[in-house]
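ENTRY TYPE: paired fold submission
RECORD: A
CONTENT: sequence, then structure tokens
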Amino acid sequence: QVQLVESGGGLVQPGGSLRLSCAASGFDLDLYTIGWFRQAPGKEREGVSCLDSSDDNTYYSDSVKGRFTISRDSTKNTMFLQMNNLKPDDTAVYYCYADQYDGQGTQVTVFP
């Protein structure tokens, strides 16, 4: 059974950090482009970051560049999103994806 399960969301003050995890089962993350997107209430879905498994190139949206880092641990079949210097505008549900699959989401709330 193919499954992606996110964890690591929570409440944090501006300037704080969180590390999101996304554990995959049923398929090998190393074979696919992987990434994260987020959805805030009343806003369009936004692609946050992705990692191309063919060459390990990474992409970041302008809104998170320099603050977020995507990574992967092949031994654990898990991807991560390290989020530093969080801002209230980062508040959203964060979803990981790989190929055609995505997870159930994890809430990140940055409150003043």
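RECORD: B
CONTENT: sequence, then structure tokens
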Amino acid sequence: QVQLVESGGGLVQTGGSLRLSCAASGFTFSSYAMSWYRQAPGKEHELVAAISPGGTTTYADSMKGRFTISRDNPKNTVYLQMNSLKPEDTAVYYCYVVLGYWGQGTQVTVSS
């Protein structure tokens, strides 16, 4: 069955960095686009970034220049490098595959 397991979240100060990982299994990882979403308390899910099977990337405007999505197809893993973090980046970050599956999420908290 499809599984997405996120890791790498935590508590960081404003201006700090974190690297999230999402390990995928149960499908042909290299054939599907992968995305990162986030949900802050009381808010809707928000697209953070997406990457196509061939490596084309898209970002939400507020993340451009600060976040980088990448994938390692042999390792079945997608990453989200987050730099210059701000308190408003505090949220649960989720990995998503276009097959319709979500990971369990990883908490990112940015202190001011």
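NOTES ON RECORD B: The longest strand covers residues 18-25. The mean pLDDT is 97.
STATUS: closed
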